[in-house]
Amino acid sequence: MVQRKGKGSRREAPERAGKLRERAEEVVKRLEKLYPDARLELEYNNAFELLVEAILAAQESDKKVNQLRERLFNKYKSPQDIVNVPLDELERDISSINFYRRKAQLLKKCCEALVKEFGGDIPRTVEELTRLPGVGRKTANMVVGGAFGLPAIIVDRHVLRVSQRIGFTQEKDPDKVEEELRHIVPQEKWTEFSFLLLNHGKNVCIAKNPKCEECPICELCDSCKVKL
């Protein structure tokens, strides 16, 4: 004989989801006060620049990429410019960046696809962007949210770490974390939420020895080390 689950069991999942949504709204409210101008650390003027920088920033600091950007984009103003340049010349132009040879190849392939499939325009959807060589969901969401101002959950290492510590997710795969956060955070807040957690992860909720005593969301966090 099959036993029916009690009403409490049926309510548990939606009730937990509701509490997480309430917590997410409060997290955004508090972090907005701490980071009123939260944004990506990468500096850019348009979607093309951000796409290139996001590819260069893999396993490299945003600061290092920013130091290169002015010289780089004085020369390369469109995907076609990167398509036209010889590979060895592009490698020299980005040689200050980690794994520059591999990244030069990715940039060439990405820009070739942009010219061939999109006429040199930068797509505005994650689905289209991830069809480009070298572009995963994190990079695609950075462009969608950062350059176009559309709703996007950007899961970099900081957003992943802070989300886990707060208790929004137990997943380790960035794509699965993105999917869970989509159900917790209001869509109109996706991009801002990402920027806020990114900034918080860099400044307070750092990887080693997080500054819990300085954290305005400590009481909302499952991993807070400060006794409240």
Short description, anyone?
With 228 residues, the protein is mostly helical.
Q: Can you put this structure into words, describing what you see?
A:
The chain has 228 residues and is mostly helical. Helix content is 59%, strand content 0%. It contains 11 helices and no strands. The relative contact order is 0.13. Residues 1-10 have low confidence and may be disordered. The chain folds into 2 domains: 47-147, Orthogonal Bundle (Endonuclease III, domain 1), CATH 1.10.340; 151-228, Orthogonal Bundle (Endonuclease Iii, domain 2), CATH 1.10.1670. Helix 2 (47-56) packs antiparallel against helix 8 (137-147), helix 5 packs across helix 6 and helix 9 packs across helix 11 (190-203).
Overall tally of structural domains: 2
Q: What is the CATH class designation of the largest domain?
A: Mainly Alpha
- Secondary-structure class: mainly alpha
- Share of β-strand residues: under 5%
Which regions have little confidence, pLDDT < 50, spanning 5+ residues?
Answer: 1-10
Average residue pLDDT? 93
Helix-strand pattern: HHHHHHHHHHH
Taking the sheet with the most strands, its summary is: none
* SS element count, helices: 11
CATH superfamily of the largest domain: Hypothetical protein, domain 2
CATH architecture level-2 label of the largest domain: Orthogonal Bundle
CATH topology of the largest domain: Endonuclease III, domain 1
Q: Please state the CA-atom Rg, rounded to the nearest Å.
A: 20 Å
